[in-house]
Design a protein that fits this description.
Number of domains of chain A: 2
Oligomer: heterodimer
Number of helices of chain B: 3
CATH architecture of chain B: Roll
Strand order of the largest sheet of chain A: 12-18-17-16-15-14-13
CATH superfamily of the largest domain in chain A: Naphthalene 1,2-dioxygenase Alpha Subunit, Chain A, domain 1
Structural class of chain A: alpha+beta
Largest sheet of chain B: 6 strands, mixed
Number of strands of chain A: 19
CATH class of the largest domain in chain A: Alpha Beta
Structural class of chain B: alpha+beta
Number of strands of chain B: 7
Shape of chain A: globular
CATH topology of the largest domain in chain A: Naphthalene 1,2-dioxygenase Alpha Subunit, Chain A, domain 1
Strand content of chain A: 25-35%
Largest interface: A-B, 39 and 37 residues
Helix content of chain A: 10-25%
Shape of chain B: globular
């Protein structure tokens, strides 16, 4: 942390020590946004960086961000994953300009300083000068100017990074239940089916909360009810880790009953809507546990989604107080046959920027952001399902949102 | 049939298609496709990498009909329209039954309050069925130049 400044700056005051009243200024205050960059994204947390499959070969790299801080993730010649700031130690120039690539070394375009794939400074152009004139003083030592490594950890093919040595190891950070929820979905080698980026006109936290909000799903996203897609009783629940920051919610479905039911039942009346082509929802119980929806979040920036047979990783990338980029990576598995791939692609219509049961999440945060303009002195309320952030065997609850704020407050230190 | 007549027919199909969308006659939109069609909105980077997932994917006319029904009856969003501007259309290959065509487009998004922005730019890569009149798309790939989509995509491109 900075010597003076951020240490003494306090965040937006909260009306109480509880988790049910959320000050609206958290979404609008520029100083709060700066605090989050320092205390959350550069704090003792683990941020999702990329998929291990994106950096499969030595020399592969991905340029991404933690919060707004540019970082590079590489696979080195020993097969290890490294991460370091995307910033030359010399004059601070951006080292990797493209999102993804394969290189033997990382060379700064500005003055030709070169680094190996672990971030070690290996070359300084004209270090000995030109014709014995100029050059670096003899006191200059390259090994004092390596790129500061981030901590990296890999879990089920997901690569995470942390700026802080005092962050707990990744599995302790997540807790055993959430780790189990990740392994449940990513239980075999994944294959990337596609990617896209959705630009959200709102603060990053509004989207983070949305993914933890099991209350809104059947209200805002009316696709399933409009087309009378029978969700039967859909038992499920919410699992929240001890810190509150990570969670997963699950809902179950009687897959076999739904399949027969939707095909058998015709229209009940002229006004009754049915899908002309139900292949967009035709799904199989690929995990054998009847769980048709599992939404899992990792504080601060990742969502792992299984909705029927659509698997996706979403990464939240803040881009200013009221702008967020949401990176979607759509996944299948290496052992998928053509039928399974086609099934995933058709169900892909359910999610993403044009998703039948997701597109509303792209605009609703922007509506909140607009409503808060110069009208943010008071607080919102999240009391569905109680006051605390405990796991619950039902989903009409805002417990996971309260968990987000529990973790957030612990890090901001208000 | 001579090539010129085919070219004119393909031009008419592409022009009528964007007119249908921009004038909000979306119920007619599925009729621009054959029954066993393929419609995919993807990005240049995904297309070039051979990645099959698209933000919108339809493998039948029924899936296109469902898109329109969902837009009209289920999905929630701020009212808006597009204005498509299609550049020169190049009909690149013609055989007895199928023509292939490429064209560039931009789509301006006009929100209900009049706010306008450039929503999408890209290429249409089409395969057109010539066996019936009017012509219909067998396949229409919408390859967006950017993989970024602002807010949401609900009206087809």
């Amino acid at each position: 942390m900075s010597e003076f400044g951020a240490d003494v700056i306090r965040g937006i005051p909260w009306p109480s020590n509880g988790l049910t009243e959320i000050p609206f200024r958290l979404y609008t205050d520029p100083e709060q946004y700066l605090l989050e960059q320092e205390r959350i994204f550069k704090g003792p947390t683990w941020s999702f960086l990329c998929l291990a499959a994106e950096i499969a070969k030595p020399g592969d790299y991905v340029a991404t961000t933690i919060g707004e801080t540019a970082v590079i993730v590489t696979r080195d010649n020993q097969g290890r994953i490294n991460a370091f700031p995307n910033r030359c130690a010399h004059r601070g120039n951006l080292l990797c300009l493209e999102r993804q690539g394969n290189v033997k070394e990382i060379k700064c375009i500005y003055h030709g300083w070169t680094y190996d794939l672990t971030g070690r400074l290996t070359g300084v152009a004209f270090e000995r000068g030109v014709k014995r004139q100029g050059g670096m003083p003899t006191e200059f030592r390259k090994d004092e100017h390596d790129l500061a490594p981030l901590r990296v950890a890999e879990l089920a093919g997901l690569v995470f990074g942390s700026f802080r040595k005092d962050a707990p190891d990744l599995e302790s950070y997540l807790g055993p239940q959430v780790v189990g929820g990740i392994h449940r979905v990513l239980n075999r080698p994944a294959r990337i089916l596609g990617r896209s980026t959705q630009v959200l006109p709102n603060n990053w936290k509004l989207y983070a909360e949305n993914t933890k909000d099991t209350y809104h799903a059947s209200i805002l996203h009316s696709f399933l009810t409009t087309f009378r897609i029978n969700r039967l009783s859909m038992p499920g629940g919410i699992h929240i880790d001890d810190s509150g920051g990570h969670h997963f919610s699950q809902a179950k479905l009687d897959y076999a009953a739904e399949d027969g039911d939707y095909k058998r039942e015709g229209l009940r009346s002229d006004t009754d809507l049915r899908l002309e082509d139900p292949s967009v929802i035709e799904s199989v119980d690929e995990y054998g546990d009847s769980v048709s929806v599992q939404i899992l979040t990792i504080f601060p920036n990742m969502i792992l989604q299984q909705i029927r047979n659509t698997i996706a990783v979403r990464a939240i990338r803040p881009r200013g107080i009221d702008k967020t980029e949401l990176d979607w990576v759509h996944l299948g598995f290496e052992d998928d046959d053509d039928v399974m791939t086609e099934r995933r692609l058709r169900q892909g219509n359910l999610v993403g920027a044009a998703g039948y049961i997701a597109m509303e999440d792209g605009c609703v945060g922007g509506f909140v952001q607009r409503a808060l303009r110069f009208n943010d002195e008071d607080s919102g309320v999240v009391m569905m399902g109680g006051y605390d952030a405990q796991s619950q065997p039902f989903r009409s609850s805002e417990a996971a949102i309260r968990g987000f704020w529990k973790k957030y407050r612990a890090l901001i230190g208000d | 049939m001579n090539d010129l007549a085919v070219r004119l027919g393909v031009h008419e199909l592409i022009a009528a298609y964007v007119d249908c969308i921009d004038e909000d006659r979306l119920e007619e939109w599925p009729d621009f496709f054959v029954e066993q069609c393929r419609y995919l909105i993807t990005s240049r980077s995904s297309h070039e990498a051979g990645l099959p997932h698209g933000v919108v994917y339809a493998a039948s006319r029924g899936m296109l009909v469902d898109r329109v029904t969902a837009l009209r009856r289920a999905n929630v969003f701020e009212p808006h329209r597009y204005r498509h501007i299609v550049g020169p259309i190049r009909v690149e290959a013609i055989d007895a039954t199928v023509a292939q065509a490429h064209s560039n487009f931009i789509a301006v998004r006009i929100m209900h309050d009049g706010e306008m922005s450039l929503f999408a730019a890209g290429r249409y890569l089409d395969r057109v069925d010539l066996t019936s009149k009017p012509y219909r798309f067998i396949e229409r790939l919408v390859v967006l130049d950017s993989q970024k989509i602002d807010t949401l995509l609900v009206i087809p491109l």
